[in-house]
Design goal:
binds nicotinamide-adenine-dinucleotide, Rossmann fold, 5-stranded parallel β-sheet, 2 domains, about 325 residues
Length: about 325
């Protein structure tokens, strides 16, 4: 299929070319899909995008007008796509439902450990010849309470790793996961989880129901000194609420791999620019905040799985049958 592939970096091109093996005619663009770049699309049958490309109704209308019939997402989350509009316009949306659940879970725990034991501060001190331990004291995770919000694939794996640390497991999900219950997880209401847990890790998708799940009220119900980890989607957290929580000390640690306004920042080298986002800049000033730039998925296994499934989605669509597990349809 003649496919325009947006937001590509060298690693995307390498893995996609290998998986494609010349079956589809792939044209790679470094820039994202947006209201400007959509105008450049001519003579393509499919468009392939990533987490921060925009596919709202206006863009989907342009795609449909230009004969695009397939939107192939190189990711699991589809909060950036207007799914009902795509269905109305006859555009099939396919995604990669799971490509690195282990990688994301491992990254969530890496953030917890780095924050708890202040690895980033210790590393900088040692490089500077400062061997003082003042301010580096951590806590033992053994016996502490971990709250997993969203106990699907990634939440379950995160819980499994934390069980290995002998943490007590608590969960919140609209559909409890029997595998988590078998691990000893106790499901609680959100308020109970906030009041109980020392570490809270977010693994729900971004939906209208979960947008700004962590707001002033939620932070107000948490334990003093709580650690919050978000490797899911930035919009789950109202950033000003966690800034206020950090300033008051209610939040003791914050680990983010995602940020609600990340589309203007992440995946680019902006080291020569002045950051215009004052809220993000404030987050960078806290000694107890670690931010990574949406890299939880970024492993060799994940890139290979993303490329293989994306090419399979193109091939399936061309043959008239995309794997139903990969299709995204409007909720009934
Ligand atoms: P999943 O579908 O397996 O699990 C999501 C869980 O959330 C399900 O158990 C579901 O029942 C639950 N859920 C849905 N809506 C809910 C609600 N309103 N309240 C409570 N629970 C609700 O998804 P997954 O594979 O575990 O991925 C989770 C999220 O991780 C994705 O949606 C994506 O946004 C994010 N993700 C991030 C990266 C990264 O690199 N940072 C990579 C992959 C996925």
């Amino acid at each position: 299929m003649r496919t325009a592939v947006f937001s590509t970096k060298s690693y995307d091109r390498r893995f996609l070319k290998e998986a494609n093996d010349h079956r589809h005619d792939l044209t790679f663009f470094e820039w994202p899909l947006n209201t400007h770049t959509v105008k450049l699309l001519h003579d393509f049958e499919a468009v392939c995008v990533f987490v921060n490309d925009r596919a709202d109704r206006v863009i989907l209308e342009q795609l449909a007008k230009n004969g695009i019939r397939l939107l192939a997402l190189r990711c699991a989350g589809f909060n950036n796509v207007d799914i009902p509009a795509a269905a109305e316009l006859g555009i099939t949306v396919a995604r990669v439902p799971a490509y690195s659940p282990h990688g994301v879970a491992e990254h969530a725990v890496a953030l917890m450990l780095a924050l708890n034991r202040k690895i980033y501060r210790a590393h900088n001190r040692i490089r500077d010849g400062n061997f003082s331990l003042e301010g580096l004291m951590g806590f033992e995770m053994h016996g502490k309470c971990a709250g997993i919000i969203g106990t699907g694939k990634i939440g379950e794996l995160t819980a499994g790793i934390l069980k290995g640390f002998s943490m007590r497991l608590f969960g919140y999900d609209t559909r409890p996961n029997p595998a988590c219950e078998a691990m000893g997880m106790t499901y609680l209401s959100l308020d109970e989880l906030y009041a109980t847990c020392d570490i809270i890790s977010l693994h729900v998708p971004l939906l209208p129901a979960t947008h700004h799940l962590i707001d002033d009220e939620a932070v107000g119900r948490m334990k003093d000194g709580v650690m919050i980890i978000n490797t899911s989607r930035g919009g789950l957290i109202k950033t000003q609420s966690v800034i206020d929580g950090l300033k008051s000390g209610r939040i003791g640690y914050l680990g983010l791999d995602v940020y609600e306004e990340e589309a203007d920042l992440f995946f680019e080298d902006l080291s020569d620019s002045v950051i215009q986002d004052d809220v993000f800049a404030r987050l960078l000033t806290f000694p107890n905040v670690i931010i990574t730039g949406h890299q939880a998925f970024f492993t060799d296994v994940a890139l290979n799985n993303i490329a293989e499934t994306t090419i399979a989605n193109l091939t399936g669509f061309a043959a008239g049958h995309v794997d139903p597990a990969n299709l995204v349809k409007p909720r009934a």
